[in-house]
Design a protein that fits this description.
The protein is built from 16 helices and 16 strands. The protein has helices at about 10-35, 90-95, 115-120, 125-130, 160-165, 200-210, 255-260, 275, 295-300, 310-320, 325-330, 350-360, 420-430, 445-450, 455-465, 475-480, and strands at about 70-75, 80-85, 100, 135-145, 150, 170-185, 185-195, 215, 215-220, 220-230, 230-240, 265-270, 335-345, 365-370, 400-410, 435. It has an eight-stranded antiparallel beta sheet. Strands 1, 2, 3, 4, 5 and 6 form a six-stranded antiparallel beta sheet that branches. The chain has a two-stranded antiparallel ribbon with strand order 8-9. The chain starts with 11 loop residues before the first helix and ends with a helix.
């Protein structure tokens, strides 16, 4: 049965959702008009999942307080209308009631749908479902010119639809997104497969992506963890409705430690679909260890509601504000530390090359692996050879692996700022890869334009949708951090 019913009217709950959303958009527009014309337009938002430094400003920001809800779900069409500032935690909580989930659910609960689309999100379904922006059917955007436009793949704003991903709010902010959903089962059965050789892991990952199965068993989810050159794992997930016991990694047990084993046979585990989707959030992958939260004596006393990425983020913000970590290092006679918090993508056949280089040059472990391909149903590049998503030009039909690493390394006296990050940028470019822009970047302006502007695409979009430069440009926001 359609949500619109016989008379073409949406049910009351759906009407209520759209009414509340319209009120939120009205507040957003009023806040835009209140910003002085000589001031940059920014979100009035205290929290962020970006690791770039954020400029301080006394100017008022955009009021997005009314854009944080799921507006409507159509379980028959398997779609959802979602306000741009809705967190994936709230989105998933709503869609799971219908036995549905977004095609890609980024790892951290407070990532917003709009943020994952204008930035880049990824997870263990990305080898079959691509990136979050690929499941968007239409999007309402508040442009820098103060207009709300609806962009679809083939309407008069198709250029904005395709150019919006990886623009990081420099072309506008999403107010509503209509996205595809997929059915999910109540449980996920896991296999943790150990490798002693990175090239064997790379080859096995390639086989799984091609076959969507391994050793005769279907694979619905795929990611991996590298601890050392001779200890790495692929984690294979299969949806199931088979009842049975499940593990819980929101208490004393830590998920990434559960992966490790010495057997030549896969280690098996089971989670509810909810706990699988948020398996990394409880400990922010492995980053909670920096706060002592993985020490059993401390963990036992750590309030359970604070075992989540959003709380660790607050601790990170305090450290950045007061330089707590560097002060501790100084008292121990150590130099300040350089933050190395990055996600990069390289073609799958260069995965072992990059990881081997990284393990030699950058003293950080573990490392996360997550393969991805643009969807088979992606609006393919046209005959002129244009990329379907020009500001982050992954090639259709080619498999990449996202490699994530999140820690800090000692600085070297007399060396330029960002020494390790600059080396990573050079190696990624050498291997025909890309780097996400949610964290520190050190490219010069010409190289950045070559990598992220899609030729003339970005400047053309900027001129059209933000003619008075009310929003920061991408280089200023991602590199100069003004």
């Amino acid at each position: 049965m359609s949500l619109l019913g016989k008379a073409g009217r949406a049910p009351a709950a759906q009407e209520s959702g759209f009414t509340a959303h319209r009120a939120g958009v009205d507040r957003l527009l009023a806040s835009y008009r209140a910003i002085p014309r000589d001031a940059s337009v920014r979100l009035a938002k205290k929290t962020s999942n970006l690791f770039r430094a954020r400029a301080k400003t006394s100017a008022p920001g955009l009021d997005v307080s009314g854009l944080t809800q799921v507006i409507a779900v159509d379980p028959v069409a398997r779609t959802a209308d979602v306000a741009g500032m809705t967190t994936y935690e709230d989105l998933v909580a709503t869609t799971l009631r219908y036995g549905l989930a977004p095609l890609v659910v980024p790892q951290l609960k407070t990532i917003t749908l709009g943020g994952a689309v204008t930035g880049l999100g990824i997870e263990s379904t990305s080898f079959r479902n691509g990136l979050p922006h690929e499941s968007v059917l239409e999007i309402d955007v508040l442009t820098g010119a103060g207009e709300i436009v609806t962009a679809t793949p083939d309407n008069e704003h198709a250029d904005l639809f395709h150019g919006f991903p990886n623009s990081y709010g420099t072309l506008g902010y999403s107010t509503r997104l209509k996205i595809e959903l997929e059915p999910v089962q109540p449980y996920v059965a896991l296999r943790h497969i150990r490798f002693h050789d990175l090239r064997e892991l790379e080859a096995t990952m390639t086989q799984i992506i091609a076959d969507r199965s391994h050793a005769g068993e279907r694979v619905d989810y795929l990611d991996g963890v590298v601890f050392t050159a001779d200890e790495s794992y692929l984690v294979l997930g299969r949806q199931t409705d088979e009842p049975g016991p499940v593990s819980d990694y929101t208490g004393m047990d830590v998920f990434y430690r559960s992966i490790q084993h010495d057997s030549t046979e896969p280690k098996r585990d089971r989670l509810t679909i909810h706990d699988y989707l948020w398996r990394w959030d409880t400990d922010w992958f492995w980053c909670s260890r920096a706060f002592g939260a993985q020490n059993p004596r401390i963990r036992r006393l750590w309030p359970k509601q604070y075992r989540r990425s959003s709380f660790y983020w607050k601790l990170i913000a305090l450290d950045q504000k007061y330089g707590i970590g560097d002060r501790i290092e100084a008292r121990q006679g150590n130099p300040p530390r350089e933050r190395v918090v990055q996600d990069i993508e390289v073609p799958i056949e260069r995965t072992a090359d990059f990881v081997e280089w990284f393990l030699r040059e950058i003293p950080i472990e573990p490392i996360w692996l997550c393969p991805l391909r643009l969807r088979d149903t992606v609006r393919e590049a046209d005959s002129a050879g244009e990329h379907p998503w020009p500001l982050y030009p992954l090639e259709p039909g080619r498999t990449y692996v996202n490699i994530g690493f999140w820690s800090a390394v000692p600085t070297v006296a007399g060396q330029p700022e960002g020494l390790a990050n600059r080396a990573i940028e050079r190696e990624v470019s050498k291997l025909d890869g890309h780097k996400s822009l949610y964290s520190d970047a050190y490219y010069d302006q010409d190289e950045f334009a070559d990598l992220y502007y899609g030729g003339d695409t970005y400047s053309t979009l900027k001129q059209h949708y933000d003619p008075d430069s009310r929003l920061l440009d991408l280089y200023s926001k991602a590199v100069q951090r003004k």
